[in-house]
Amino acid sequence: MSIKIITDSACQITDSNKNENLIILNMPVISSDKEYIEGQTINSSDMFSRMKNGEVFKTSQVPYKTYYESFKNELESGNDVICITLSSGLTSTFQTATMAMNALLEENKDYKIIVKDSLCACSGETSVINKVLKLVELNYSFEELNEKLDEIISAQEHIFTVTNLEYLYRGGRLSKTQKVMGSLLNIRPVMSVDKNDGSLYVVEKARGEKQTFIKMKNLMIEKCNNNVNLNQTLYVCYGEDEDEADLLIEKIKEDFDFKKIVKCPLGCVIGAHTGPNMLSIYFSNKDLGEELSEV
């Protein structure tokens, strides 16, 4: 018997086959009523190119049947299940997974299964899942993982920005007036994820790259109560502009010597909504312990 971590493809982990404890369920990417599966029938580079030519992409949640069958297969094999979903503020995946869990617990109350709302997106979800997988490797019990996971999720922070406001406008995050004025004035929103409901919100606005980087660093300090924990892995996620990600990393290194920095390309599920010009950082607002400092 083992503990299986089940999640969705918004987590952007592409080498799940290398970890026998991780199962990733696909969230389809859709354009013109045609469904694509990231890494199989589409990749982010192809999608971004098509988006810049005017094609509109959207995403769909993991179906109830997929959750139910995946959960049941593992539980009937004698495994315990921890499911971690993309933020409920962005999709109804958490609610769907919870329905599947409840149906199975009605069939067998002795099953060990929990569904957790990550309240995260993109590499924030990556960070949470990698930490949980590390704890599984360290032989944490199901009950210990359940408790520690709440702490990990509570500590996870997101800060991101975009250079092209068109895609946030298409997704209903900005009005047409905000999009036009922001583009004319070279204004970039600095955004985060609400820790209560996992929804996105604009924290402040910046003009140009230099001011954006300063505001992102200052917001990181604020979210850590003026005490940034350097004994951790900082995740930096980028769309098409890897050079800008490198510049941001250099600016961060001027003031903060993180134990480890991981640079990640943006995947299709989140990229379909932000567009190709997204740049973001992900970190914990407190020290979660030495055992989790490099994941």
UniProtKB/TrEMBL annotation:
One family from Pfam that matches here is DegV
Q: Which GO terms describe its molecular function?
A: lipid binding
Q: What InterPro entries is this protein classified in?
A: DegV (IPR003797), DegV_C (IPR043168), DegV_domain_contain (IPR050270)
Ranges in a coiled coil: none
The signal peptide annotation in the UniProt record is: none
Keyword set, alphabetical order: Lipid-binding
Record-linked PANTHER family? DEGV DOMAIN-CONTAINING PROTEIN DR_1986-RELATED, DEGV DOMAIN-CONTAINING PROTEIN YITS
The record's function comment reads: May bind long-chain fatty acids, such as palmitate, and may play a role in lipid transport or fatty acid metabolism.
Q: What is this protein called?
A: Fatty acid-binding protein
The species this protein belongs to is Finegoldia magna (Peptostreptococcus magnus)
